[in-house]
Specification:
This protein has 968 residues and is of the alpha/beta class. A 7-stranded parallel beta sheet has the order 16-17-15-18-19-14-20, with helices on both faces. A 6-stranded parallel beta sheet has the order 8-7-9-10-6-13. Strands 1-2-3-4-5 form a 5-stranded mixed beta sheet, with helices on both faces.
């Protein structure tokens, strides 16, 4: 144990958190901080963490650094300890958060911060928990004390990051009203730890975990090996093959649907539905990075399976902006540029240009090829951008033939780049029986001088995370947002100690999905800045480095191609496209049925707008949906979705959380328009203002939106008492209501009047809730004659009275004297729960003595009502030195009570042995000998002989003094 005062060691070793807290509270002010830091560091060591204590001046807001044993070189958590006499205020907690963000986070390359305060926090301070800040009070320290096992703690218990802790709490709140709850979180944000935490809560019940692949299941199983016996881990495919009888015998109380968007498949979905139908009382948790099935009519599986009840909706962009995930570096290039040049040379030869013109064009194309190889060829890109600390990559290919080809090509790139001495490849695909072995070898691979390349098609698109993977290479063009986000997510994960690298070598960046990703990042930055500003925090969003290395060369190639194929031919191709699709918004990657690279041509027209003849500009502008600014296409797309919304709803009041049926985030787009009002051209402003019930006043619209939801709630429930956690249609109404109460003094009289006219509205819900709890307590006293309520007690109407009573005791120092007096007037009321617990234990012990005739309780004994009396008795003996004389007297008055039962048992056996010796003349007791009153003396003697080396010298001497005693 570390060098901390012995009086603290004693309480820690005895797992006595209450005694420890008393000593900490009594410390002089000058010693409070240092002693608490030392104790907290020791508690973390005894819970399996590797610990570096560094509190003091210049600690940059980091008293303690925690390292996980599996990643000893990476700081997992930064701890700041506070032993204040009162709960920390919002301002005090905010100061610590700012110090963490500005100093300790960049210094230690860690974005996870825990503030531990002995006396907790005021309610307002908990709002800061949204910013990667774990706010923990004495309950956290109690848990560390109870689990303190310095010799046997192999590694820390499951730790939820701040964002997942909020989600975990939200899941349990939503489960109060609904059995089915979904979590939508970006890949890499720790969903598997969240699942593990929930599974651990169902320790005594059967559980079923479903996932698309055995890889995901094995990863999940590795986090909770102690639950494997009570948990069935099944793939969706296996469940689909099970009979109804087999499914019903699973008999589970919890069902976890990981990657639940996959449940939309016919066979898999049918199996899941059978499981849900056969277990109607089971709780269901679903997790995915996206609930939308874009290629299946944009079905929203969160709506179909969970009725839209979502505990968290955290996109990849939001996770990066909030620094939950590290910001990546995005390198966009085109590894097929050589082939592009060769193809263009063939087009040159087939063209009707003169020999002189062809020669000039060949020279230009070859010059481009040489320039690419020298400055931006793939080996050169890897050489310039591949960091030395990364040696594991995943390479995504189109199909098996493509994988076979690229497995050789990619190795050649790294050989030319010279970034590593050796190269080793692995492959994982459905048809390869060695995939499992390859994956395991890849995960275990080491050696920093070797680059380890895992080639995959689509088997690693979701669910599986390998911590050492620091980069991905995209060789598969895709316009699917699910595939795109899942692929780049393989190298972006919470707790990473490096900057992830995305090598997009098929120029996905030029298609709509990659552009949407950057657009989502910017929108998330604005939303985060607004949230932080409301709590007095400055901006903290990271920057994403984007390099489009092939763009300029592609534009030159496009210009050459235009000299081969006439402008008229390409315009006719665009005209056909516009007639077929109703617009001229062509993706950069689009190639028409005749082989014309129409997307590239359209992009080139925009780039040379100023050089085009007016007649050509006019013809382009006459096309439906034409835009000279490709970014304006995004505006048109947003406005089109808004018009569709208005056509269906009759108004333009779109909630910020609203997502269209095809997955488009319309609410986010509208929020962006309001914030950018001054930058929007007048014609667009006119279009928006022409829509019914459009509003530019974001704050006013948000207030009206919240009030409309509150009115609906009051109409449905008959009152406006909204729980803080209540959400409807994705809108967090409970938070909105709480905000209105906090802004009571700033609110206009008109808004105050509108709120107060709602039935049950209260500006001080604490008083209302307190009085409701007190009414239940009075009813309990009338029925039972006392106010000794157990912590788990619930009233007949489901009210959790026990929990309410516990809260009153914990918040006594903040409670008005009036309320304290009301409680103290009740018969049997006690402010000290430990006193009540002691009396409860003593009452059980008295009952035991009455039934058994003695107080000899075994350590494992449990009373009929489930009370662990044996454990309580053991604790009393351990606390003898600190026990009051009154309690000692109560215990010692019981028949058969002993402070040292093991010593008493030995003395009893020795007494029987002495009687045997006096009667028989020797101590050679047969193994099977039992005294006339039933005492197993033979067994006792045999036990002494077998424990010869453990018996103390005093007892050995007493045994050896007996006639005929021997240890054989």
């Amino acid at each position: 144990m570390s060098d901390i005062p012995a009086q603290y060691n004693k309480f820690i070793l005895k797992h006595d958190a209450d005694g420890l807290k008393s000593l900490l509270g009594a410390l002089p002010s000058k010693e409070k901080g240092n002693v608490f830091e030392a104790i907290l560091a020791e508690l973390y060591r005894g819970n399996g963490w590797l610990v570096q204590q560094q509190g003091g001046r210049g600690d940059a807001g980091a008293d303690i650094l925690l390292y996980h044993p599996k990643t000893p070189s990476t700081v997992s958590l930064i701890i700041q300890a506070k032993n204040h006499s009162l709960p920390l205020t919002l301002d005090q907690a905010r100061i610590e958060l700012i110090k963490f963000e500005e100093q300790s986070a960049p210094l230690h390359n860690c974005q996870n911060f825990r503030l531990v305060a002995v006396n907790g926090y005021v309610r307002e301070a908990h709002k800061l928990g949204e910013f990667n800040l774990l706010l923990d009070g004495w309950e956290h320290i109690e848990k560390l004390v109870q689990n303190y096992e310095p010799e046997s703690a192999a590694e820390p218990s499951i730790e939820l990051f701040a964002h997942n802790r909020i989600t975990y709490q939200r899941i349990n709140e939503l489960w109060e009203d609904s059995r089915h709850v979904a979590v939508v979180q970006a890949t890499g944000t720790g969903k598997s730890y969240l699942i593990a935490k929930v599974l651990a809560d169902f320790l005594d019940k059967r559980k079923v975990v479903l996932a698309p692949s055995t890889y995901i299941l094995e990863q999940q199983k590795s986090k909770i090996p102690w639950l494997a016996d009570s948990t069935d881990f099944l793939t969706y495919a296996k469940l689909g093959r099970m009979t109804g009888k087999e499914i019903s015998t699973l008999n589970c109380g919890l069902i976890v649907l990981d990657e639940f968007h996959r449940c939309g498949a016919d066979v898999w979905g049918a199996g899941v539905q059978k499981l849900l139908d056969s277990h109607p009382d089971a709780k269901v948790l679903g997790t995915t990075a996206t609930p939308i099935r874009y290629l299946d009519d944009s079905r929203n599986m969160a709506e179909e399976l969970f009725d839209g009840i979502v505990a968290e909706d955290l996109s990849l962009a939001e996770a990066i902006v909030r620094r939950i995930l590290p910001p990546p570096t995005y390198i966009s290039a085109l590894y097929t540029l050589n082939e592009e040049c060769s193809s263009l040379l063939e087009e040159v030869e087939a063209s009707k240009r003169s020999d002189e013109e062809k020669s000039e064009l060949r020279r230009e194309i070859n010059a481009i090829r040489l320039d690419w190889e020298k400055t931006s060829g793939v080996p050169e890109i890897l050489k310039q951008h591949f960091p030395p600390g990364i040696n594991k990559l995943i390479v995504f290919c189109k199909d098996q033939q493509h994988l076979d080809e690229m497995e050789i090509e990619v190795q050649h790139w790294f050989l030319k780049a010279g970034t590593h001495q050796r190269r080793k490849t692995y492959r994982i695909l459905t048809a390869d029986p060695d995939s499992d072995r390859n994956l395991e070898e890849f995960k275990k691979a080491g050696g920093k001088d070797t680059v380890h390349l895992l080639f995959a098609i689509d088997m690693l698109n979701e669910g599986l995370h390998i911590p050492e993977v620091g980069a991905v290479i995209l060789l598969r063009p895709t316009e699917s947002p699910i595939v795109f986000y899942q692929q780049i997510g393989r190298c972006i994960q919470v707790g990473s100690d490096h900057t992830p690298i995305i090598f997009d070598l098929v120029n996905n960046f030029q298609n709509v999905r990659a552009n949407d990703f950057i657009g989502d990042i910017e929108e998330a930055k604005e939303a985060e800045a607004r949230r932080r500003g409301e709590l007095g925090l400055s901006g903290y969003a990271p920057s994403i480095k984007v390099e489009e290395l092939a763009r300029s060369i592609e534009e030159v190639l496009s210009a050459i191609r235009e000299r081969l194929v006439t402008w008229e031919v390409m315009f006719e191709a665009l005209l056909k496209f516009a007639k077929e699709y109703g617009h001229s918004r062509v993706l950069v990657s689009y190639v028409d049925p005749d082989g014309h690279k129409l997307g590239i041509w359209v992009s080139h027209q925009r780039n040379i707008q100023a050089e085009l003849a007016q007649v050509r500009r006019d013809r382009l502008e006459a096309l439906s949906g034409w835009s000279w600014d490709r970014h304006s296409d995004r505006w048109e797309e947003g406005f089109r979705h808004l018009k569709e919304f208005v056509a269906n709803k009759g108004h333009a009041r779109v909630f910020q959380s609203h997502i269209a049926a095809d997955g488009y985030k319309l609410g986010v787009w509208i929020d962006s328009q309001r914030r950018r009002k001054a930058e929007i051209p007048q014609d667009r402003r006119n279009l928006l203002e022409g829509l019914p019930e459009w509003s530019w006043n974001l704050l006013a619209e948000h207030w009206e939106q919240g009030y409309r939801f509150l009115e609906q709630f009051a109409q449905l429930n008959g009152h406006a008492k909204v729980p803080i956690s209540y959400t409807t249609e994705g809108y967090n109404l409970g938070v909105w209501v709480n905000t209105q109460r906090n802004k009571n003094n700033e609110m206009s009289q008109e808004r105050r009047d509108r709120l107060e006219k709602l039935a049950g509205w209260s500006w001080d819900p604490y008083s209302d809730q307190w009085e409701e709890g007190f009414r239940h307590l009075e009813s309990f006293v009338q029925n039972e004659g006392h106010a000794r309520v157990t912590s788990s007690y619930k009233a007949d109407d489901g009210y959790e009275l026990g929990a309410w009573v516990v809260r009153q005791r914990k918040t006594r120092n903040k409670m008005s004297q009036f309320y304290q007096n009301l409680l103290e007037e009740l018969p049997g009321w006690c402010w000290e729960p430990l006193t009540m617990q002691w009396e409860e234990g003593f009452k059980h012990l008295q009952a035991f003595v009455q039934n058994e005739g003695n107080a000899k309780v075994s350590s494992s004994y449990i009373a009929e009502d489930g009370y662990k009396l044996g454990r309580w008795v053991c604790k009393q003996r351990d606390r003898l030195e600190n026990m009051t004389p009154e309690r000692r007297g109560f215990l010692e008055s019981l028949d058969g009570w002993s402070w040292n039962p093991h010593n008493d048992q030995w003395e009893e056996g020795f007494k029987y042995l002495e009687v045997f010796v006096s009667r028989e003349g020797h101590a050679k007791v047969p193994r099977s000998y039992v005294s006339s009153d039933g005492y197993n003396l033979g067994g006792w003697v045999s036990n002494q002989r077998s424990r010869k080396n453990e018996i103390n010298q005093e007892r050995k001497s007493r045994l050896e003094a007996l006639t005929g005693w021997n240890y054989e």
